[in-house]
Amino acid sequence: MIDKRPAGCEDRALFEAFDATVLARIQFAFTVSFHIIFPAFSIGLASYLAVLEALWLWKKDEVYLELFNFWKTIFAVAFGMGVVSGIVMSYQFGTNWSVFSDRAGPVIGPLMGYEVLTAFFLEAGFLGVMLFGLNRVGPRLHFLATAMVAFGTLISATWILAVNSWMQTPAGFSVNEAGQFVPSDWWAVIFNPSFPFRLVHMVLAAYLTTAFVVGACGAWHLLRNTAPRRARTMFSMAMWMAAIVAPIQIFAGDLHGLNTLEHQPAKIMAMEGHYESHENGAPLILFGIPNPAKKRVDYAVEIPKLSSLILKHDLDAPLAGLDSIPEELHPPVRIVFWSFRVMVAIGFAMLGIGLWSLLCRYRGTLATDARLHRVAVVMGPAGFVAVLAGWITTEVGRQPYTIYGHLLTANSVSPIEAPAVGASLVAFIVVYFLVFGAGTFYILRLMARLPRDTMPELDEGPLRTAGVTPGPAAAKPHGGHHGH
To answer: Is there a contact between 373 and 269 (Cβ–Cβ < 8 Å)?
Structure first.
């Protein structure tokens, strides 16, 4: 039998069974998941580069300059992929979310414009100097350029988190005759109730993500015995970051959770798996299988009253459940429940690695404990997984709203048909895996190419490496050896 349907009808029929809103949400989730990986890495790596250069200027130890040159190339690639992947999300505001853009544009548009005018221009202006200018502008001015790039990444995170936090806890606005959100107090818009907690939580997550990537790279080369001094320095710095920042992050996450309970209680209900309200103390459900049909968590492993203790610092404090709000306002519990647990589990695993490293440091085995090094290699991508899990928790937990409590997701989507969204989704998946898959593979290849030490280790004084001769010339910037 001959199929007489016009060309393209098969693809159209494939996607007509789907809802356009669902496909638009999948598309944005897919692109933002790819994008967030690169800023989470570049924010931490830019600060790490600034620290490396500061240590080189202070201690006059060439190993810090070699590590700087090694990681700056990786930073450049990650930064470029972050910029490219971020542009696509702005494009989707106009194609798939035009109603949201129209209504929220007076608030969100200026904030994203400020991000470009401040952070992106600052990063772009000094990036070239940081990458290529050491021998041209001198060490001190070059360090200023590196510090400005690091500062720019933090400013970028500040503006983007201000936008997203406003969508989570909107404040400082009014609604005009056209139904648009119009700022009435910019200070309240930017410094909305969840902004400080979410900014701190995200920046610390970026630092931990970078620390475990650097630590995995150093551990990998320690296991292979390539460039032991450089690898040892990398690994030691990364483990200091893990030991110091992981407990701070857990504390910051707890404060963020208390803030979320106050302003987005439904999200906390989904995270905790509390379908029912508890009048005399709520249990902490460690594991289980959420059952939305029967409004319960099957096979739950729980600790009585611990959730009330964590969230309200009182064993007998009452906690409301999802039964206290209309069912149509429930977030997707299964996704939020599990993504939250993945994030928390990785956070405590990072804390465990940090404490283990302190023990090894105390025993003098930090550079020789192969078990710690193998675990550190395995934990290399853990920060990215935790960041993705955290974003899934906060974004899916906000549903069914795009602007919490004010604009439903179903009322934010463009008047566009499912086949059009589906076709662009397939194109994004193919292109992203090809382009960013190749970029990620290239970064991994760069990490694997840390050159071997070419001189024996010395007990005293800086190690002289290839391209650097002992004497006064060794203290000067050089371009003969870039560590990659």
So the answer is: no
pTM score, two decimals? 0.84
Shortest CA distance to 218 belongs to which of 357, 107, 351, 377? Answer: 377
- Asked if 155 and 118 touch (Cβ cutoff 8 Å), the reply is yes
Residue 372 CB neighbour total at 10 angstroms: 22
Domain layout of the chain by residue ranges: 227-401
Output the DSSP codes for 200-240.
Answer: HHHHHHHHHHHHHHHHHHHHHHHHHTSSHHHHHHHHHHHHH
Distance between CA 285 and CA 300 in Å, rounded?
6
Q: How far apart are CA 86 and CA 248, in angstroms?
A: 29
The pLDDT tens digits for 107-158 are: 988 898 888 888 888 888 888 888 888 888 888 898 999 999 999 999 989 9
In this structure, what DSSP letter does residue 124 have?
H
3-state DSSP call for residue 299? strand
Polymer length of the chain: 484
Under DSSP, the state recorded for 451 is P
- Nearest Cα residue to 210 out of 61, 74, 27, 90: 74
The residue type of 427 is A
Report which of 303, 275, 308, 276 is spatially closest to residue 287, judged by C-alpha positions: 303
150-172 core/surface letters (b: 16 or more CB in 10 A; e: else): bbbbebbbbbbbbbbbbbbbbbb
Q: Are 53 and 146 in contact (CB under 8 A)?
A: yes
Query: Which residue bears the tokens 């105390």?
Result: 362
